[in-house]
Structures are given as structure tokens and as C-alpha cells.
Amino acid sequence: MENRGITFGYGFLSQESSFDVQFSLIEFDGSHSYFRAYLVGLLNTILVSVIGIIFATIIGVVVGIARLSNNYLINKTAAVYVEFFRNIPLLLQIFFWYFAALRALPLPQDTEPMFGFFFLTIKGFFVPAFIWNNLDIFIYSIIAAIISIIFIRIYARKKQENEGIQTPVLSISIGLLIILPLLSFLFGGVDASVEVPVLKQLSQSGFTYEGGIKLPPELISLALALSLYTATFIAECVRAGVQGVSKGQKEAAASIGLTPNQVLKLVVMPQALRIIIPPTTNQYLNLTKNSSLAAAIAYPDLVLVFAGTALMQTGRAIEIVSITMLTYLSLSISISIFMNWYNKKIAIKEK
Amino acid sequence: MFKYLKQLTSLVAMVAVLFTFTTETMAAKKSKTLKNTQKKGFVRCGVSQGLPGFSNADAAGNWTGVDVDVCRAVAAAVLGDANKVKFTPLSAKERFTALTSNEIDILSRNTTWTLSRDADIGLTFVGVNFYDGQGFMVRKNSGYTSVNDFKNGISACTNLGTTTELNMRDFFNSKGISYEPVTFEKADEVVAAYDAGRCDTYTTDKSGLAAQRIKLSSPDDHIVLPETISKEPLGPVVRQGDSVWEDIVRWSLNTMIEAEEYGVTSANADSMKTSDNPAVKRLVGAEGELGAALGLDNDWSLRIIKQVGNYGESYKRNIADTGILPDRGPNELWTKGGILYVPPAR
Predict the structure, then answer these.
(1) What angle do CA A84, A89, A94 make, to 5 degrees?
(2) Model confidence at A271: pLDDT above 50
């Protein structure tokens, strides 16, 4: 490197970045350091991965179970969806959602509001924001509700083991989650008002929305493409898992008088999960790494902000690429450690 | 006798010193890049992924543009044939790494000359082949006539990782306007996003705006605002540490500009060998030993002018006649009111 006149060092991380980022979870502008730009990119990567994982799991489970349905229409629709989306390269799908589908959205001034408050435009999805008073008390009330639910579950389990009496844990939990935050509104001084986005004129022909929360179209199309693509693989994992539980198990469960819901919840799912979790972990890892394709459509993720703009502005290719690689490695390892822990938790515990 | 011997030895010593001195200067002429280029038989040139007027490939894969002509001039000077160039299209992100990692030998890709790029990352800028400045393009029906009409919340599309991105921030900050930067890696994606209405304005170098406007679905519905918010001297770049190669590229570019100054064109270059003006004769290699100073033969500059043409011809062919920027503006010779001024070739 010395031969080529390249210097090496990480000192640039504390320098002023002097560029702006379109969308950031933490406060950022050009006066912040390159290190903060790194954090901005990292958080955006995590955000789109988490959104993607949640939606991919929901869609995947629904489609996977739909593929097992006896209803011809549901079964075939799910099969077509899986075959269609998993056989088209992800980058093309991202391009499709961003450059074709979302481009067909109306300009801000032509948008019809959804439910009166939501505005889906070519410049992004504008949703109302809550303006809170005493937000901390509200959060405490939710935490209190969650803690009491955990205690009730432990108590219910003990009661069932000792006396064989089942407690309706679910309805109690939902009740707690509603009542405690409600009390915080009534007595805790918590107050929320809704800020609805309003149309703002920029020029004779240009408009945008002001107020509320703005989800950039880049985030929407990336999350959409990632979840629809990964969901197909998760659907197959789910189908494999459920089919992997032998028919005799279901019949045996039914023969001792369990309802079909109980059969699914107590007999089929616990066994199916053991088959589903390990390959699904792979899909979560893939989704996280695939989110780096964001750079193609201007979503400011780690690759675009840090390994893109920051790299080009500083010219420090080796340092930045090494940091980025390490970051993806640690992200993937964290996910896999968590999933391995969960896998162990649901595995057969032989005594 | 002893006295003579002493004189003789000092003479021998002097000759020896002189000899090592000349061989050392000869050795310094040996450029690794030059040697490799001559061995390979082509010049490795990094260009843009398609910017009409600067570096753009047609359907048959023939590259044209003022940036392309710099590489062709070097090929004519070094290898004797302006067509012996291998072009590598590079994104803004790849360009510097491609040069420092030895994949290309000249980067001629509308690249802005700045201090940090020149000094910090192993690059050397050899000159300026286009004086540019950053501007804004907007829709005609927006009613914007000046950057002073911009309002809070405006969204601006641009290329990621360029000086444009930094200038944009400086500009909006100084005006106290909040804005939304939407940055893409490829110019085509920026154009597509702006065209679809994702952004209210598209900002990049004015030459780039003029060139990209042609790609919009209805170019006449868009205008470039009059203000220029930055200096963008664009020029070819070489790796740091090979000063002979650096000189060859620099003087290939300078030759094109000086040829225009003295009225030497691709058509009349041969006849200029008998010119009365010694400066013209030096330029076409009929006088002096300028080629040797660069480690080349003496016809190097004549070949550049004959095969590529002078700067004016290159500008006319690539930028004026294609309708991108018919007016040369600052890219006119200093004798005609522009700022193109190169050191004399002598």
C-alpha cells in the first residue's frame, strides 16, 4: 500500500462527514462524524431486516399452512405464489417494486387519503404521528402489564401441574394489556394527540406532505421485496415441518379427545417447530444479508451510507470494507446465536 | 608525470560521475506504467458508465467524448494509434480503487479535482479538460426560475459519493432550507427517479444535467436553473508515484489545447511542419527534442493532433454538435475569453 501512496488508519471515523442522509433513525446531518454515519447505516439495515423478518414470517407461515389446505383454490394459489416469487432473482424484484410498482403511485397532490389519515404517494407513505405527553408513564404501564403477565403464566402453569385446573391466561393477558395503559391515560396524565400529515405546496407543480411520519418509498419497496421473496422459502420450511409430523401423532391426539385446535397447538406445532426453526434461521440470515441490495434503490442502509458515500468521500476502501464485513458478520452471528438458543429451547428435552 | 596522472584520474572521475548522472536520468525516464502499456499494446482507460459528450459508447461499442479523447491522445502518443485503448466503464464508487489497484492507468471520468482526492488517496490530477459547475434541473411547470425559490421539504436526486452530494449540503445549509437527499449509484437511476416525480430537482454538474436531459421522457418540460453553486474542474487522474506517466498524460492533454491555440488541426498538422512559427514547429515535432524529454519519439504530438484533433475539434465533435452545450463558456481558450490556459510546450 505504501508503494501506491495509500495511507492506512481509522482516524477518519471521527472526522466531520459533511453529507446528509435521506432517512435516519437517529439525528444526523453533515456536521456529525463518519462514525455516526456508520451507526445511521447500521440502524437502517437493522430496521429493514427486522421489518422484513416479521413480515416474511407472517406471510411464510400463512402461505405454508395454506399449501397444506384441502381447498384446491387456496392450495394452488399458495403454490403459484411460492413458485413465482422464489424463482425470480431478488434484485429484479427490488427493481420491480421500486422502479415499476411504486412509480405508478400518484403524486402527492393527486393522492386519495386511505382511512382519512394515510397518504401513499410516489414520494413516500405519510402516516399520522402520535404526539405524546408523559410518554414514559405510558411505557412503564406497558412494562408493568408484561411483567404481571409473566407472573400469571408461571402461576397458571404451577396450578395446572398441581391441581390440573387450566387458567384462561390469554384473556387475562389481553385484559391486562388494555387496562393498565388505559389507567395511565385516566390517572397518570398521559395524553396523546394525532398529527395528521398535511399537503404542502413547494412550487406551482410540486407538492409534499408535512407533519406525521414519512416512510420513504425506498424502505417500502425494499421491505416488500425482501419479505415476499424470503416468505416463499419460509413457507416451504413450514410445510416441511408440519408434514414432518407423522399422521399417527394427530390421530392419537384426536383419539384422547383433544379438539383440533389443541391438536395443532399441543401436539403438531411443538414437533413441527423443531423441523422448521433451523432452515428458517438460514432464511433470516439470508434476508439480513440480502438487505445490502438496498444500495441499488437509494435506501440508506449500511452499504449505501458507509460502504458507499463514506467510502467515496474518504477514499478509505480497505478500512471501510473491513468494518462493513465485520459488521455483517456480527449481525449474522447474533441472529444465529439467538435462533440456536431458541432451537435448543424447543428441542426435545430428554431426561 | 605524477602531476599528469593526478589530472587524468580526476578527469576519469569526472567522466564517471557524468556518466552515472546521465544513466540515472535515463533510468528515471523508465516508467513502469509506460513500459507495461507498451508491452500490452493498449492504454487502459477508466471512463463513465455513459455520459453523452464525455464518455459514451454507441451500440457498436465505440466510445466517444472529450474524456475518451484524452485517453486516445495518450494512446496516439505512446503507441502510435489512437484506437489502441481499452475502456473500462466505472461507477463513481469504483473509479479511484480501480486506479490505485492497478486495473486502469488513466482515469478520465468527469472527475472533480479536489485537495483531498489529490493528496490523500494515492492519486494525482494532471490537469483540467473541462471546467464545470454544479446546477439544478427542475420541471418547467414548477414555476421555479431561481434556486432562491426552493422551499423547505424539497427532495433532490443526485449521484451518491460525489462532490455534488457535499456541495448540495453546503448549498441548502447556507440557505437554511431543509431538504431530502435521494442518492443513487448510477446516473440512469437518478434520471429515472427524477423523471417519475420522486424528486423535485435533479442536481449534478451542469454539463451532466445538459447531457442527461436528453434521456428524460420529455426533455422540453425541464429547465436548468441559471445559478452555479460550485467549481467543478474535471480532469484526468493517474496513480501517484509514476511521474513520467503523469507527465505524458498531462502533456498529451496540453498538446491538444495548445494545438487549438496555434490553429493546428487534424487536417493541417502535416503542413504545419514548415510553419514560420517556431512554437508551431515544436508542437508538431519539426523542431526541438521534446519527445525525448518524455521518453517518447519526436512525432508523439503530431500523432495526437492528426489522430484525435485539437481540443476545439474534440469539443465541437462531442459536446457542441451533439447539442449538449453549444456554448463553450469557460471552456474557451484564454485568448478568446475563456479560461483554458496551458503552459507552453518547449
Answers:
(1) 95
(2) yes
The residue whose grid cell reads 428524460 is B216
Structural domain boundaries enclosing B121: 35-131+234-334
**Amino acid A33: pLDDT:** 93
CA distance A267 to A253: 7
B315 and B267, same domain (yes or no) = yes
What is the mean pLDDT of each successive set of 10 residues along chain B, which is 346 residues long? Answer: 61 56 50 93 94 91 95 96 95 88 94 89 92 94 90 90 88 91 88 90 92 87 92 94 94 96 94 92 90 92 95 95 88 94 92
Q: How many CB pairs under 8 A join A and B?
A: 125
Chain-centroid distance of CA B32 in Å reads 22
Residue B343 lies in a domain: no
Say if the Cβ atoms of B189 and A297 lie within 8 Å: yes
pLDDT at B25: 47
Q: Which of B94, B96, B152, B182 to mutate to test the interface with A (most CBs of A within 10 A)?
A: B182
- Per-residue confidence (pLDDT) for residue B33, from 0 to 100: 94
- Which band of pLDDT confidence, cut at 50, 70 and 90, is reported for residue A5? low
| Nearest CB neighbour to A204, from listed B100, B143, B161 | B143
**How close, in Å, is residue B126 to chain A by CA atoms?**
16
State the average pLDDT over residues A188-204.
78
Point out the domain boundary residue: B184, B201, B230: B230
Cross-chain CB nearest to A309 (options B141, B183, B193): B183
CA distance A123 to A109: 11
B144 contacts in A (CB within 8 Å)? 203
Residue B239 and residue B115 share a domain: yes
Per the CB < 8 A criterion, the answer to whether B329 and B133 are in contact is: no
Kind plus residue range of the DSSP H or E element containing A37 = helix A34-66
- The answer to whether the beta carbons of residues A315 and A55 sit under 8 Å apart is no
Domain closes at, from B230, B257, B289: B230
For residue B119, the chain A residue with the least C-alpha distance is: A5
User: Min CA distance, B297 vs chain A (Å)?
Assistant: 28
Residue B3 domain flag: no
What is the complex's ipTM, to 2 decimals? 0.77
Cβ distance A296 to B189 less than 8 Å, yes or no, reads: yes
Q: How far apart are CA A224 and CA A230, in angstroms?
A: 10
Q: Are residues B124 and B249 in the same domain?
A: yes
Set of cell numbers at residue A30: 453533515
**CATH code (residue B40):** 3.40.190.10
> In order of start, what are the domains of chain A with their CATH numbers?
11-103+216-346 (1.10.3720.10)
Q: Confidence class of residue A313 from pLDDT cuts 50, 70 and 90?
A: confident
Say what the pLDDT of residue B6 is: 64
Q: How many residues in total does chain B contain? A: 346
Nearest beta carbon to residue B182 from set A5, A6, A22: A22
CB proximity A296 to B under 8 Å: yes
Are B153 and A206 a contacting pair at CB < 8 A?
no
